[in-house]
Amino acid sequence: MAKSSSGFRTGTRRKLKRKHREKFTVEKYLQEFKAGDKVIINIDSSSPKSMPHYRYQGSIGTVKEKRGRGYVVDVKLGNKDMKITTKPEHLKGV
After folding, report:
1. Which own/partner pairs from 10-19 qualify as long-range (CB within 8 Å, at least 24 positions apart)?
2. I need a labelling partner for 11 at 20 to 30 A (CA). Which of 4, 42, 51, 82 fits?
3. pTM greater than 0.90
4. Which residues sit opposite 92 in a β-bridge?
């Protein structure tokens, strides 16, 4: 019997699925956030670059800083504070 793969996207068939006929919009890629803004991590599976791990899907965090084209977001996971670097297409303003 072959061993199951354990890659970065295992177990995400339903979590990262896009809605039927969801259209590409440029506004999602061009949105800007300031330090201190609250954001929801909403992973866009069509853009794999700087995609956060699927365990952060739906988490609410605070933008700490802008780094290059991406943002550093502070997210609380359990009792730990995590820093996630991601691009704006994976973020949604609250």
Report:
1. 11/54, 12/45, 12/54, 15/43, 15/54, 15/57, 16/43, 16/45, 16/54, 16/57, 17/45, 18/44, 18/45, 18/46
2. 82
3. no
4. 40
Question: How wide is the angle at C-alpha 51 spanned by C-alphas 50 and 56, nearest 5°?
Answer: 130
What domains, with CATH codes, occur in the chain? 27-93 (2.30.30.70)
Tokens of residue 20, six digits: 């039927």
